[in-house]
Amino acid sequence: MSHTEHGTLERPEIRHTSLWHQSVTIFRRNLIHIKRMPEMLLDVTIQPVMFVLLFAFVFGGAISVAAPAGYREWLLGGIMGQTIAFAAFIVAVGLTADIDKGIIDRFRSLPINPAAILVGRSMSSITHSFIGIIVMSLTGLVVGWRIRGSVLEALAAYGLLLLWGFAMIWVGILVGSAMRSVEAVNGVMFTTIFPLTFLSNAFAPSERMGTVLRAIAEWNPISALVQAVRELWGNTGPAPADSHLPMHHPVLFTILWTVGITAVVAPLALRTFRNRTMR
Amino acid sequence: MFLIGIVTEGTVNGVGHDHAIEAEGLVKEFGDTLAVDDVSFAVPRGTVLGLLGPNGAGKTTTVRMMTTLTRPTRGTARVAGYDVLTDPAAVRRSMGLTGQSATVDELLTGRENLWLIGSLYGLDRKTTERVGGELLERFSLTGAADRVVKTYSGGMRRRLDLAVSLVATPPVLFLDEPTTGLDPRSRVELWDVLRDLVEDGTTLLLTTQYLEEADQLADDIVVIDRGTVIAQGTPLELKDASGKASLVVTVSRADDLAAAVERVRGAGLEAHVEEAARRITAPAEGLGDVTRIAAVFDGSGIEIDDLGLQRPSLDDVFLNLTGHRAEEVPDAGEDVGDSTVGDDAHEDQEVRA
C-alpha cells in the first residue's frame, strides 16, 4: 500500500465503555460549560438570594407565621423548594441547547448508550441545583435561619430536596425535548414554575388563604416538600388541624409526589426525547 | 499501532463483503411527506461516493438513516457489513460522521473536543492525546488547540469537526456537506486531507451540492433529487450519458478561419463557427475525431491555437437530468453560503487530445 507523507493513520482500538464512564464524560463536559459560563449559575445563586432578601426584609414584615424564630427562618424552606423546582428548568435549557446545536446528533453517532446523554445531563443539573441549595443554606445562616432538629433529620431534609430534584429532571427532559429553542424553554418554565411556587406555602402560610386557594396550595406538591423540610429542620410546628391531608404527612406525600411525577412524566419524557432526536 | 490495511479487513464482519456501505431501498416518510424514496447504492471499500443533489433533495436524511440517527420507514443499510437496523451499535463503532448534522462543542477548546469524543469512543487519555495532537497538527490547528471553539473561524470549525470524527479513525466516514460555507482555499485544503484519508484506506461518503466537489473527489456519483436517485455512475459516465461531446478548434489567425471550416466539413463533421472567438465547434463521437481532425490540419499551413474535445460539465448533467440547475431549488435557503456555489461549477471539462 502506498502512503503519502501523512501516510500511516493510527487506528486506535475502539473499546466498549460502561454507561457510567460515558455519563461521567458527558457530566464533565457539562461542568466545563459551567466553568466557561459561570453566569449560568445566576439562576441558583443571585436570583434566590434576591428572593430571600426581598421576602425577608421587604414583604416579611407583613407576613406573620407560627414559627419559633419568625418569618426569615420559616422562609428558607420555601426558597429551597423553589430553587430545587428550577432543576427542571436547568435540565430543559441544557438539553434544548444541545439538541439545537447538533451536539446530541454527534453523541448519538458514537458507539455509546444514548441514555448516557440524559444521565450525564441529569448529573450536571443536579450538581448545578445543589450549588444553589448550598448557597441558600449559607445565605439562610446569615439572615438568621438555623437547623433546630437532629443531624439525621437535617440530612433527611436535604435528601428530600435531592429526591425532588430527580423528579424534576424528568419534567426538564420533557420540556427540553418538546421545545424548539432556549427562549421557548425560558417562556414555558417561568410562566409555570413561578405561579406554581407562589400558589403554595413557600412564601406565605396557606392557613390564611381562601378556602379554594388553600386547598389548591396545600395539595400543590411543592407545599408538601416545603412543609417536610421545614418540619425536619425544626423551622415550623406541625400543620394546623384544619389543614388538608398532605400537610399532616408532608414527608410521605413528598415521596408519593416524586414517585407519581416520575411514573407519569418519565415515559412521556423519554418518548418525546426519542421522537425529537430520531427524526 | 496498526496499519490500516490489516484493521479494515478485520472489521468487516469476516464475511466476504467488498462494499463498505450499502443502501437498500431506503425510504423515509415524515408524516405525509416522502423525504427519501427507495434509495439504493453500494460503495466499494476504499472508494469515495459523492451523493449529489440540491438542498432538500434528501441527502441529509439518507445519511442520517445510514448513520443510525434516524430509522428508515422502509429498507435498510449496511455499514462495514453491519445492518443499521439489527446492529446499530456495531455500525457506530465502524463509522464517523461529520458536517451538517453533527458538530463540535463551542464552549470547549479544540483539545477538549477531541478528549470528549475520544473518551466516548473508549480511548484512554494517552492515546487520545497522542492521536489528537497528530490530528491538530495535520489540520493546522495546533496553535488554536487550547482556545475555545467559539473563537474559531468557519474553516477552523470544519477542520476540527473532521479531526474529531477521526480521533478513533473509523474505517467508514460520512461527511455531510463538508465544505458548505468554506472559502475556496479552505475547501481545496480539505479536499487534500480527504484524498489522504482515502489513500489510507478509508471509505468515504460525502454529500455535496457542489458539482465540482463530486467531480474532484468521487469515484462514483449518485445524483438524487426530490428523494429519488435519478442517476448514478462515475463522473465520466454521467457526462457521457448526458449528451455528445464537441470538438473545438481555435485557429490563431482570423484569416484562416474560412479555410479551417472547409477542412472540418471536408472531414465529414458539422461545423459551427464563432467568428469573434476564431472558434469552430462540431459534434464529435470521441477522441478518434480529434485525431482525424489533427491529421487534416497537419501540414496545412493553418496555425492552430487549440484543439480538443469538450465534454458536458456535471452542471450540464444535472440540468439535463432534473430540468433545473443544482442551485436553484424550490426550498433552498436551509444552509448558509449556498449562493456562492454556482460559479465554481461552470468550468469547462476539457479532455485534451
Automatic annotation (TrEMBL), chain A:
Where is the protein localized? Cell membrane; Membrane
Where does the record place the ABC transmembrane type-2 domain?
39-276
Q: Does the keyword Phosphoprotein apply?
A: no
Q: Which PROSITE patterns match?
A: ABC_TM2
Concerning Pfam families, the annotation shows: ABC2_membrane (PF01061)
State the InterPro entries in the record.
Answer: ABC2_TM, ABC2_TM_bact-type, ABC_2_transport, Nod_factor_ABC_transporter
Residue stretches spanning the membrane: 44-68, 74-97, 118-143, 155-175, 251-270
Task: Classify the protein's membrane topology as the record does.
Answer: Multi-pass membrane protein
| Superkingdom of source | Bacteria
Q: Which UniProt keywords apply?
A: Antibiotic resistance, Cell membrane, Membrane, Transmembrane, Transmembrane helix, Transport
Question: Which protein family is named in the record?
Answer: Belongs to the ABC-2 integral membrane protein family.
Name this protein carries in UniProt: Transport permease protein
